Structure formats: structure tokens, C-alpha cells
Amino acid sequence: MNVAAAQTPNALTLENFWHPIATSAEVSDKPKQFRLLGDTVVAFRDEKGVAAFKDLCIHRGAALSNGKVKDGNIVCPYHGWAYDRSGACVHIPSLPAGQPIPAKARAIPYQAREEYGLVWVAMKDPVQPFPQWPDNAWSNPDYHVFLINVYRWKSSAGRAVENAMDFSHFNIVHAGYTELADGPVVKPYEVERTKEGLAFAYEDGRIRREYTLDFPFVIHDHKKVIATDKGRTWSETDDTRQGDSTILTFIAAPVDEKTTHMYAFMARNHSLDMEDQSFVANFDLVTAQDQLIVESQRPEQIPTDIKEELHLRFPDAPAIIYRRLLRDMGSSEAYLP
Fold first, then answer.
1. Which of 2, 37, 63, 196 lies deepest, with the highest CB count within 10 Å?
2. What is the mean pLDDT of residues 40-59?
3. Angular region, 271: left φ>0, alpha ψ -120 to 50, beta rest
């Protein structure tokens, strides 16, 4: 679905998109509570894969995450009501045998899937294809992909994503690590709306950066070496070659209005004999520099009117389009960048 296309006002919310709630290792055969979009989610796995529900028993409001999984059903810890994967209550211990279970006795199931080492949830029917990697890097044997780290920011997911697509701060915040080779002045370039979100590219004489957004909170920064005589960034090496490709992927999970879990990945087609850990320390440092800035941004309740913050045509071009995409959704104001 083209999110740039005209929509019925307030027809879409952030619940209509896939968001990660945890790494695969965090979801087991025992129910566990997670948070997404300011609400609680219970997730578990069995032989059928991962499952997720609103963490609420319809009977008396107990948290299903304090219960157990039995025969593929999640069982409430309070009165033992058992719900199958569709949300239907299939057993109430206090009812006599043969007495029908009320049709309204239902838990609230969410769509769940496991991809890229993460467990994802869509609270309502998703309106876009599942996010994919540039160059199909996740499944491409030419690339090696790994999870760098999971960062917990006290910020909105929109602020975090906007930071990840903003290269005009590199020479200020990340001097010595990722600054643009030809200096801080941003040259003209174009931002394209796509059916997934937006896309743009920028060259600084050393690196071509191709950014793609899977709306609303997945951003890929595809860095391609176009010259080797102008230094390197932390993700290149001393034997960097023209054509070396590094994809930095940032997936911002909106825990609530002021809390974001940032899942950061690296895919690379170079330095395959190097340990992944060789790249982590500098990435952590750069991320900490960003986190300090983003967590300081105000207002905390983000303005939805584009005119309420000052924008420059080329340095802020992606952010302007991004904010417009988010603004057009209902119930998204607090998550806006």
C-alpha cells in the first residue's frame, strides 16, 4: 500500500504496521510481557511458532503474562480461562461440563511473526509488505548481517528514525567518525516518495549513501565506497576498496510515547574475515553521541504542524516528507519526530 497516497482521515494508525517487540531469544515457551505503543503485549512460542495477545484476560482483567501455556493455549493465572491462538476461550474451569462458553469470552490476539532474529507484532491488519533489506542482504550470500546492539532511548520512535536519516549533523556530532568527506555544506539532492515510504541518495566524494525508509520506523543507510583516497568512516577498514558496501539498519520500536528500543544491524560485503565485535565499539560510541542529542530534544509531546519547527530545504528534506507521512495518520501525534 502506498502510504503517500490519499487516505481516509485517521483511517491508519501505528497499529497498522509491523513493529518488533523483542529479540527471538527473549521469547520462550513461557508467557512474557512486553510493551508496544504504550500498551502491554504477552508473547510466547510453541511448535506452531510465536504468538502474541493483548496482555489482558477478558474475564477480570488479569495479566495473561502471569499465566502459562498449556496444549498451545494461554491460560489465565486468576480463574484458569484458556484461550487458543484465535483468541477464543476454549475452557473455563468453573463452568459445568457441557455448558457453552459465552461467545464474548475472547482474548485479543495480534498478528505475530519471527524475522531477522526479532519477534514482530501488528496490532491491527498491516497495510504494507513486511520490511525487506536492500540488496536482499539478509538472504544474500555476498553479505554478512548481524545485530550490533539494542539501544534503549528516552525519546519517541519518530525522533530516533529522523536522526538516523539525517546526515547533515555528521560533521558536528560525529567528527572523526562519520563526517561528510566534502564538508558540512549539504548539496542539492532529491527525496522520492515510494510505496514503502521514502528514498534518497547523497554523495560526498567518498561515500554514496542510499537511504530507504520502510514506513514508519525502519530506516536503511546503504553506504557504498566510491573513492578510497579520502579517508574512511568507522565501518570501513584500512584496506577499503571501491565498491565495498555497508548497510546500517535502524529499527525503532515504539515502546511508548517517550521510550524507544532501537535495534541496529550491520550488513557488509567486505571484511568478512573480521570479527563482528570489531565494529561494535565505535558504533556504540556514535550511537551514544546521537542518543545524548535526541534525548535532549523538546518538546516531548511532538508538534504535528510542520511550521512549528524551522526547516532548511536540503538538509531537512527527508524529515519534512517523513513528518507529513506521520501527520496523516490518526493516533500518531505523540510519536512524531
1. 37
2. 97
3. left
> In what order do the strands lie in the sheet containing 73-75?
68-70, 73-75, 82-83, 89-91
- pLDDT for 329: 74
CB neighbour list of residue 215: distance below 8 Å, 6 or more residues apart: 3, 17, 128, 196, 197, 198, 325
- Closest to 23 in 3D by CA, of 132, 213, 151: 151
| E strands, the chain, in order | 19-23, 32-36, 39-46, 49-54, 68-70, 73-75, 82-83, 89-91, 109-115, 118-122, 144-153, 191-193, 197-203, 207-214, 218-225, 245-256, 259-268
Average of per-residue pLDDT across 70-99: 96
Dist CA 73 CA 59 (whole Å): 16
- Residue 303's pLDDT band (cuts 50, 70, 90): low
Q: How far is CA 179 from CA 175, 210, 233, 258, 314, in A?
A: 6, 16, 8, 29, 17
Q: Is the torsion defined by CA of 320, 293, 17, 81 positive or negative?
A: negative
Span 234-284, pLDDT tens digits: 888 878 889 899 999 999 999 999 999 999 999 999 999 999 999 999 999
Measured from the Cβ of residue 207, the count of other Cβ atoms closer than 10 Å reads: 23
| CA 171/CA 181 separation, integer angstroms | 9
Report the pLDDT value the prediction gives residue 21, as an integer from 0 to 100: 98
Lowest mean pLDDT among 186-200, 211-225, 291-305, 322-336: 322-336
Domain spans of the chain, in order of start: 28-113, 134-335
The architecture of the domain spanning 28-113 is: 3-layer Sandwich (2.102)
In angstroms, how far is CA 131 from the centroid of its own chain? 10
- The CATH code of domain 134-335 reads 3.90.380.10
Its pTM stands at 0.91
Reported residue count of the chain is 337
Whether 218 has a pLDDT exceeding 70, the answer reads: yes
Instruction: From 105, 110, 70, select the one nearest 89 (Cα to Cα).
Output: 105
φ and ψ at residue 68, rounded to 5 degrees: -145, 165
